[in-house]
Amino acid sequence: MNIDQAMTVLKDKGYKHTDKRADMLKLFADQKRYLSAKDVLESLQDEYPGLSFDTIYRNLSLFSDLNILEATELEGEKRFRFSCATSEHHHHLICLDCGKTKHIHSCPMDSLDTMYPDFEVTGHKFEIYGKCEECRS
Question: In this structure, how many other beta carbons lie within 10 angstroms of the beta carbon of residue 97?
Answer without folding.
Answer: 11
